Amino acid sequence: MKKILSFVIASTLILSSALFYNLKTTDALSRLGSTGSEVTKIQTRLKNWGYYKGSVDGKYGTQTQKAVKEFQRKNGLTADGIAGSATLSAMGISSSSSTASNNDVYLLARAINGEARGEPYAGQVAVGAVILNRVKHPSFPNTVAGVIYQPGAFTAVDDGQIDAAMTSSCERAARDALNGWDPTGGAIYYYNPVTATNKWIRSRPIILTIGKHVFCS
Q1: Which CATH class, in words, describes the domain spanning 100-216?
Q2: I want to staple 170 with a disulfide (CB 3.0 to 4.6 A). Which of 1, 34, 55, 112 is the partner?
Q3: In the chain, domain spans
């Protein structure tokens, strides 16, 4: 009987740990710069309740951030302007991030880590955003794994840096990118102008530069 009870307790602890990890991994984070259906839901709720006066366009701009802060203050939440899980729950919104599989989070984080560890945080998110922009683009594979492992696409895959020791910021950057934050404004390419030798990539229209990377369309 004691053995059975010990097994049940141990199993419960393992399951609880797994559930906690899953919730932590897929925690929602819509913030300034995010786009998508979750942002549209946030704007719609806040507009209906009188917090938000702007247009419902699915873009998390300064007006949306200000409205979220006001909602948070009125509801006893931390007024940081970030729509995390507690704020979304108070709004009655289910996190869209739950649709992102743990495999995508992990693989995207590994790619960001291999390509951009040591870069500014926005630059790490930007690398993740480029990968996700490619997933949605008709010229690239339509899965995260397909884009990352497309032959010759990423130096980190070719030289093994995708397996380098993980930094925590890259894990957070992957979740931010999956939750819609795109600092690049839709870029599908990036390169380091100091090391890039490909003439074609240098011909692409530049959108912006973050850290050592140039992001382009």
Answers
A1: mainly alpha
A2: 112
A3: 29-98, 100-216
